[in-house]
Amino acid sequence: MSYIMDLRKIVGSRPLIMTGACVILLDKNNRILLQLRKDNNCWGLAGGSLEIGETLEEVAKRELYEETGLVAKKLKLFNVFSGKEFYYKYPHGDEVYNVIAAYVCTDFEGEIKMDENEVQDLRFFHLGELPTNISPPDMPIIQEYINTYCWN
C-alpha cells in the first residue's frame, strides 16, 4: 500500500478515493474464504488497494496471494462497487471512499498461508453461516453475491 501511504503523508487522515479489488474465493463446497483482519478485528475478503501501473485484476491476484498464499488461476469480474455505502473510517482514523472491483475465483492453487502482519485467521464459511462481524466495506459485496447467485 505504498501509493496510499505516500498520499497519507500529504493529506493526513482526510478522506481519499481508494481504488482496489477484492476476491470472493469459493472452494469446491461453495464455501467462501474470509480472513479475520488485524486492523478492525472483522472478517473480510482478501483484497487491497491499487498500486500505480497495476490493473484491477493484478491487484486482486496480488492481494489474494499476499494475504492467503493462494494463487488465482482464473478470476471473473463480479461487479464494481462505489458510493456512500463504501465510505470507511479505519480504526486509526484514516478515511476512504472505496471503489472496489470484486472478482470471483473458483479456480485456484496453493496452500493457505496467512499474512501474519494483516491477518489473524483464515477460514472457509458456508454462505448461509457467515460470522456476524463482517468488515463494513465487504458486507455489501458479500450480500450482493449471495442475493445474485444463491437465493434466486
Summarize this structure as a short list of keywords or feature phrases.
single chain; alpha+beta; Nucleoside Triphosphate Pyrophosphohydrolase; three-stranded antiparallel sheet; 8 strands; globular
* Oligomeric category: single chain
Average pLDDT score: 95
Number of strands: 8
- Ends distance: 37 Å
Major beta sheet, specifics? 5 strands, mixed
CATH superfamily: Nucleoside Triphosphate Pyrophosphohydrolase
Radius of gyration using CA atoms only: 15 Å
CATH class: Alpha Beta
Helix and strand content put the structural class at alpha+beta
* CATH-scheme architecture: Alpha-Beta Complex
Beta strand %: 35-45%
Characterise this structure:
There is one protein chain. The termini are far apart. The chain has helices at about 1-10, 55-70, 140-150; strands spanning about 15-25, 30-35, 45, 45-50, 70-80, 85-90, 95-110, 120-125. Strand 2 and strand 3 (about 45) form a beta hairpin. It is globular, with a radius of gyration of 15 Å. The chain has one domain: Nucleoside Triphosphate Pyrophosphohydrolase (Alpha-Beta Complex), CATH 3.90.79. Strands 1, 4, 5, 6 and 7 form a five-stranded mixed beta sheet that branches. Strands 3-2-8 form a three-stranded antiparallel beta sheet, with no helix packed on it. It is an alpha+beta fold and about 150 residues long. It has three helices and eight strands, in the order H-E-E-E-E-H-E-E-E-E-H.
